[in-house]
Amino acid sequence: MPKHVVKTIFMKFTPVLAGAVMVLAVIAPQLTSAEAQEKAQKAALPPLAEILSDRISGKADAPVTIIEYASKTCPHCANFHTGTLPALKKEFIDTGKVKLIYRDFPLDGLALAAAMMARCAPKERYFPIVDIMYRTQQNWSRAADPNAALAQIGLLSGISKETIQACISSKDVHAGVMKIRGDGDKQYKVASTPTIIINGETFKGPATIERLRKVLDAELAKAKK
Question: Does residue 198 sit in helix, strand or coil?
């Protein structure tokens, strides 16, 4: 199955913000002034460095590192997270052999909003929220009002209305997520999602557990030498 290919229009960062702004509109009215908005953001959000830090699953000193670049509206990313990842986690991540670094590569405004909102949640809730997003992707991304459906996921996951509002309206969070996207493009030439990087090398072809197992076992063998 082909990966979700990045379209040229999304290589320009500014238009991608439009969908994220729409999410804010459905959950709360805008603050009355820029000063009030900035004050509310600082009160409701975790530190920016924490919001934009890498999200890592697995032991920090695992001998093999996987970096995944993904978009939360990408159906192939959803297939990876609901199909391959559970087996990968059980066999390699939970056993301390591999650590997974998840990085955002939003392909549209709704994916950007989802990425921002998930990052503004407490770090221990990040991967559970991402899991919900991928498992229910067909529902919220195709809802009559996908922005409201996405906001509802945040609320049901324990993110406060105030935090969602502050997060989606934050220029710093927006810029930070888009920088993660841009850095992935520059460093690894990410051209589709999901893109899987194993110990610095881009994994080619379908990311099935069978194909990944062969590469990971080879990398683990190298690490033992």
Answer: strand
| 72: CB partners within 8 A, 6+ apart | 104, 106, 110, 111, 114, 115, 118, 130, 133, 134, 137
Torsion, Cα of 178, 179, 181, 186 (10° steps): 140
158-189: b (≥16 Cβ within 10 Å) or e: ebeeebbbbbbbbeebbebbbebbeebbeebe
Q: Can you tell me which residue has the tokens 């990311």?
A: 207
Q: How far apart are CA 18 and CA 83, in angstroms?
A: 31
Q: Token pair of 122, please?
A: 């407490």
Q: Which tens digit of pLDDT belongs to each residue from 50-105?
A: 999 999 999 999 999 999 999 999 999 999 999 999 999 999 999 999 999 999 99
Instruction: Determine which helix (DSSP H) or strand (DSSP E) holds 103, and give its type and residue range.
Output: strand 98-104
- Hey, which residues does 165 pair with through a beta bridge? none
Q: Using the predicted structure, report yes or no on whether residue 3 has a pLDDT greater than 60.
A: no
Alpha-carbon span 29 to 32, nearest angstrom: 9
DSSP 30-67: PPSSHHHHHHHHHHHSPPHHHHHSPEEES-TT-SEEEE
- Compute the C-alpha angle 197/93/224, nearest 5°: 80
Q: Give the sign of the dihedral formed by CA 179, CA 53, CA 6, CA 141.
A: negative
Helix (H) or strand (E) holding 140: helix 137-140
Domains of the chain in sequence order = 4-224 (3.40.30.10)
What are 101's strand-pairing partners? 56, 67
